[in-house]
Structures are given as structure tokens and as C-alpha cells.
Amino acid sequence: MSNVRTDTPAFTALLASPLTRQNRAALEADCLRHFGAEHRGDIAALLDLLLEGEAAGAGKVHADGIDLLYREAILELAQSCPLQDGGAVAPAARRVQSIDRRYDFFYSRRDERAWSLLRFMNFLARGKIQPRRRLAIVTTIRNEGINLIEWIAHHRLLGVDDFIIYVNDNDDGSTELLELLAGHGLIQLIWNETAIGKDGTTNMFPIQAKCFGHASEFLIEARDFEWLLFLDLDEFLITKPVFETPAVERPLDDLFARLAALPRPAAAVAFNWKWFKSLCKYSRQPGLNFERFVYWSGNDHVKTIVRSDRCLSFRTSHIPDLPPRDIVLNGGLEPVEKPGYLIQHDYRYGQINHYFNKSFEEFVGKHLRVWGDRTFEDFFRLGGNRDLGPEERLPAAWLGRVHAEIAAIRGLPGIAEAAATVERGYTELLAAFDRQRGIEALFDQHLAAQ
């Protein structure tokens, strides 16, 4: 199928085409001009499906390779939330589902800037779904059960409406915990089957690219949210009211009120990391990450909140694919001239607390989750982990609320028992590694080398 470049004014205009019966003739003519007259029948059949509900011809639309997935997505969307000539709503979230190896392609084509007719039609169709909720976090995890409840508790208090969690071959005993959290309606759980290596020879980024790309281009439930935040479990979004008015409900409301008041709408907000150090602590200690680690260094890496209807795809861990000339704001809510994964840090209205290092024991656990090219030396080196740096503590009122929310989640049927299983699984993973390598000896070796 003919592909068109995404980085042109013509394609930007095409993306804004209204998918309505009234605009059908104009849209059909634009598609013929961009994708070629040889696709006349395919264009007509897809518009019949999306605007008239006539599915007979859509299944015959020419597709091969990746386009088979886009055709399948369009058919599913038309069936589960018919568009006809108005806005559609996403069906009730499927709390547990899975994706297979066919979607592994996202990483291999991460630099692609050409779209097929079917990919374009899928984007237009998804754009007709009217969000009913404000924000979901999308994440991908492996063996991170020990961090899960604290991360969910904090972000629920912040005002996050739901969590879309892709899971990759866990062996830390967290399967039951994840399924219970989904059953209680706290998360949407997606099991990810992949052929991408997880044996230490491949790092996590191909898997993350696959999951984030799937959420932004294929997952119908993601379109039920006006905004999506792509985040990891060692990252915590903090917004201004958490420091100034920690008792306020849903501090994120302040951020969205500020965005709504801007003269021009923004497609995304890129918040910088604050890299919190552990000062090379060896063992994991009780307490919240907020309480255990209070010294930080500035960092220009970003994580991004993006409007779901402006997100063309998300094939990195930092910044989405957006139409040309869409506005991206920094943490000061000012436009960024050249958006990228590195933006001069500005923490005025928000930040991402990044707890990458934690204790050495936890860092070993991170390595066991398959970092690939990450070495144990990074624990001592990255983020200036040996140096104090500035100190930042969250207000006691906020910490108290997070503790209470954790207790409430653990009080749900089965959660406390499943969390205890995760703790045992984490301990067993570390013990097995300790027998092979000697964790404390490894720590002493690298510490002496610094």
C-alpha cells in the first residue's frame, strides 16, 4: 500500500480532516490524492464502514504485514463503538487482556515517518471517540511488584483516573497481585507476549516501545482519556499543589485548569526528571521512596503527558510523535522551541521524581529485570549518587495521605496476602543471585573502584 510522509504540511492538514458524512466527498478526494487512485475501492469501503456501519467491504480491503493489524483494529473499533456520523464512546474497560508478538514491530520501525491508508484511517477513527475521563498512566513493567502499590497510591491521590499496565513475563510472584488489582478496578492489565529477548542481551527499550506504541495506536480503552502519561514505576509525577496545598483533593486539577486557560491549546507537557540519590546505600529500608531519598540533582530528561487525540504514536520512553507544529510545554508551562527527550529543566509547575538508584539491593533487582547494557557501576555513577546535592522533602500531610491510601489498597480483599507473596518472590530472586555472584561482595568491589 502507498505510504505518505508525516512530516509535511499536507499530511498535517489531512490529519485534521473531519470524519463525517458531510465531509465524506472531500475526505475521499484527499485520500485519493495522498494514497493513490489504485486504492479507490479500499477508501470507499473503509468510509462505508466508519460512516455508515456497512462492514461487508471492509474485510476485503487490501492489507498485508503490519497493515493487517490496522485493518483488524478498524474493524474492532467499528464494532465495539460505532462511529456513524457523530462522536463515539469507548466500551467499558477490559480489565485483563493480552497482546501478542505481532506488535513487536513497533521498535523495529521506530524511526519510520510514513503512514499507510489503513494506519491513517485507524487514527481518524480513534479520533472520533470522545474521552469521558481525564488522565491515565501507561506503563510497562517486569518484576516490579514490590513498587506497585506505593506508585498507584500516590498517583491516585494526585488525580490519575486509571493505570494501563503492560506486563512482561513476571517471575517475582506478582501475577496474583496484578490480577487482583485489575479485579478491584484499580488497573487495566495487559499481558505482553513478545519475541524480543529478555535474557540479558537486549535491554528493556524495545519492549517499552512496543507497549507504548500499542497503547497509543491500538488500545481502544486509551481513547477514553483526554490525556495519557507515559511513566515508569520508579518515576512519580509531582505537581505544584503537592508542595503548597498538600491536603487538596486531586492536585492535578490545578495543572489542567492552567492548561485550559492558555491562549493556545498544548498537545503535550514534558516534565523533567529530578534524579533522587540514595548516597550509595546498600540495603533496602522501610518507608516511602519520598521518605528514603531526599537529595537530588537536576536532569534534562523528560516524561510526557500528551493529549490522546494528538498522539500519533509513542515509540520511545520520553516524548510522543505529534503532528508538526503542535505545541509542547515544559514544566513552566511555556512552549518548547524544539521538543525532544532532553529539555532544559524547569520545575515550576511539575516534576518527575526519578528513583533510579535506590539501594544497591534494589538496583540488583532492576538488573535482574533485564537492563541489558546497564552495569552495576551505573548505581554509583548515574545521578551523582555519591554526592548530597540539594534536599527536598514532601510535606508531612502528603506523606500521611499516601500511607493511608496504601493501607486502603492493601485492605482490599486478597491484596495484603498477594503483596506478601511478592515480597517473598523478591527475596528469593535476590537470594538466588546472591548465591551466584555475592551481592555484598559485588557492592564492595564497585564501591572501591569509584
The count of DSSP E runs of length 2 or more, i.e. the number of strands, is: 12
H/E series, N to C?
EHHHHEHEHEHEHEHEEHHEHEEEHHHHH
> How many angstroms separate the termini?
55 Å
Low-confidence stretches: none
Percent range for β-strand residues: 15-25%
Note the overall shape. globular
Rg calc: 23 Å
Q: Would you tell me the overall average pLDDT?
A: 91
**Structural category:** alpha/beta
Largest sheet: 10 strands, mixed
Give the helix proportion (percent range): 25-40%
Helix count from the secondary structure assignment: 17
What are the key terms here?
alpha/beta, 450 residues
Tell me what you see in this structure.
The chain has 17 helices and 12 strands. By secondary structure, it is of the alpha/beta class. α2 packs antiparallel against α3, α8 (175-183) runs antiparallel to α16 and α13 crosses α16 (415-437). It is globular. The mean pLDDT is 91.
